[in-house]
Design a protein that fits this description.
Layout (H helix, E strand, L loop, with lengths): L1 H8 L10 H14 L4 H37 L4 H28 L2
Helix pairs in contact: 2-3
Keywords: Coiled coil
Protein name: Polyhydroxyalkanoate synthesis regulator phasin
């Protein structure tokens, strides 16, 4: 029984890609063969799916962190940079409008 569960645990790095349906199929086969009990099967399914979620979360975080690192090294114009530039442009446009209004008053 422990050997069967250990083999199931050896799925390792590919675990995050497993669907719940596939995990249930693998465990059902183990239960049908008598390698594990139904209760043990439920526990295995829960453990495998939890580990799958954890690995998926870790992988997504690593990818996101790497993308952020790459973007910062590449000196790419970001959305944040665009918003800052838009804000500065709005301030300049307001100042220019003030100057134009003063000139109109002065040259009347």
């Amino acid at each position: 029984m422990k050997e069967s569960v250990r083999k199931l645990g050896l799925i390792g790095a590919g675990l995050w890609a497993m669907t719940e349906e596939r995990v249930n199929e693998l465990v059902k086969d183990l239960v049908d063969k008598g390698d594990i009990s139904k209760e043990e099967g439920k526990k295995v399914v829960q453990d495998v799916l939890e580990e799958s979620r954890k690995q998926r979360f870790d992988l997504e975080k690593k990818i996101s962190d790497k993308m952020q690192e790459t973007i910062s090294k590449a000196d790419v114009f970001t959305r944040k940079d665009m918003h800052e530039l838009e804000s500065r442009l709005e301030i300049l446009e307001e100042e220019l409008q003030k100057i134009k209004n003063k000139e109109k008053m002065f040259f009347k």
